[in-house]
Amino acid sequence: MNPLLAFDLDGTLIDSAPDIVVAVNRTLKNHGKITLSDEVIISHIGEGLKKLIADLFLEDNLEPSQIVELEMEFLRIYEEEMFNRTTIFPGVENFLSSYQGPMAIITNKNEKPAKAILSHLGLDRFPWVNVFGADTLEERKPSPLPLQTMMKLASRTPQNTFMIGDGIPDVLSALRAGVPSIAIGFGYTSISLLEKYEPKGVLGHYQDLHSLLEKLSVRA
């Protein structure tokens, strides 16, 4: 029985940073703020939209309702930008086409834009068990709930599941769910930060994922 592979989206399957950077800086400009470098914005990707906005407007001491308004504004701008520069990482489609087990997506991007981008890039053609966004369930990563729910849908146990992602929410949610994780070596978070959360392996290219899964499954 092949394991369930639960993938993150941004920085894992797709390189969406260029469009997110433009949308964030457009939002900042709308509020008279200085635009930020790619590196600063990319370091915030993965925690989810609310955290991204809250962090960038931290000094403003915004009310929760104002953060929601900013979030909606950013989403409108991002929906204008999200198909312009985002690409699929090399080797992703070959791997997804050849894997003979259940696959799922658990992202901290909201569900609607996540599904829209999957459709735009043609990644919706793969037989995902489900696609969970930040707003699909009551909790998002790093809560273990999305992984636990996805495992039930796929009829898999923690021992027969891998969480694959490039962010701390990915590896931390896996740790909390008792699921082995694989860290993405080319994503938006440095491996030195991810290693604190005990990933079982690091993926350098999707052409190596089959052999890495075999190695980790034998080791388990």
From TrEMBL:
Pathway participation: Organic acid metabolism; glycolate biosynthesis; glycolate from 2-phosphoglycolate: step 1/1
| SUPFAM superfamilies per UniProt | HAD-like
Cellular component GO terms held in the UniProt record: cytosol
The reaction(s) annotated as catalysed by this protein in its Swiss-Prot or TrEMBL entry are: 2-phosphoglycolate + H2O = glycolate + phosphate
- One GO BP: DNA repair
State which Enzyme Commission number(s) the record gives.
3.1.3.18
GO MF terms held by the record: phosphoglycolate phosphatase activity
Q: Would you identify the family this protein belongs to, as annotated?
A: Belongs to the HAD-like hydrolase superfamily. CbbY/CbbZ/Gph/YieH family.
What name has this protein been given in UniProt?
Answer: phosphoglycolate phosphatase
